[in-house]
Amino acid sequence: MTPREKEIINLLKSNPTISQQEIANALNITRSGVSAHINNLVSAGYILGRGYILREENYIAIIGGCNMDIVGSTTDILRERDSNPGRIEYSSGGVARNICENLARLDVNCTFLSVLGQDDAGRNIMSELNSLNVDTSKIMITEGITPHYLAILDETKDMYVAVSDMELLKKLDEEYFEKNRGIVENADFVIMDTNLEKSFIEYAVKNVTAKFLVDAVSTAKAMKLKDVLDKIYFLKVNIYEAKALSGIESENIEEIGKDLINKGLETLVITAGEKGSYYFEKDLCIIKKSRPIEVVNASGAGDAFMAGYAYGLYNDLDIEDRLSTADAAARIALKSIGSTSKDMNENNLKGEM
């Protein structure tokens, strides 16, 4: 925000109904100059909508994948190269979108930056986000097919194989980032997934001073982070993603975690299924054991874990409590048919803890 824009914000705070001409007279500048400054303030998220509604509450900026999920699960042992009887579910998905929904259900203010196609899937996803009071004003709507994710779960309800069509996410480029730079800079912190292009991720973390929390998504996509680990405040990976990033082929999770911290990460969590989660920062490792649970669908648990951790950070909880909220959120997701759960709320989160 420039000094002139701060002057305009102060005038709007004292008189929200003030006209642009009155602002121009007060600051001894042209009306067109005032209009340009106000447009900048709208783009940066300082002014919301008409009537000069000023944004003063804290919020998290979330950038990344937003897609339609199609999940098939078998009712018996999964057989390759055969037709398996089972169940097929459609739901809104995408790692960043799932994190955003979980946080919104936990009453956290979220601004979502992503891209959707001009199709039924895009319209349905947008409608759902709006119903959760997510700020969707920065989502790009463009020609093309809304990203889709197709997953097949095995008889244990764990993912067996998946196919993702994220071509539209390439529309999120440096120009889009610069247009929304103010939203990123003024957020409490920023959550990104690695469905974004490597060039976008690197541009974002190198050009804005912010707390970036990143979800690695997959072993292949995690490699986009290899050259910018020192720019990332917090990284969530599973054991396979951690091995890929570190280059260490070992079952010793503590060894891998310490290596990634030495590569520049400030804080890190490695999730390891039944073994629990491992938190690392310099000269510190905390192991959070998991409790047995009957899994309905494991595909959204990692996203919920990230949301639970971010919820704890947003509410200034200490690291032990952040890990507890992360674990509790993951457990709620594990008991849901979809990749997110309508049972995600603060009361249920505390109950799981």
From TrEMBL:
CDD domains: HTH_ARSR, YeiC_kinase_like
Keywords annotated in UniProt: Kinase, Transferase
Record-annotated HTH asnC-type domain positions: 1-60
Domain of life: Bacteria
Coiled coil ranges: none
Keyword Nucleus: no
The name this protein goes by in its record: Winged helix-turn-helix transcriptional regulator
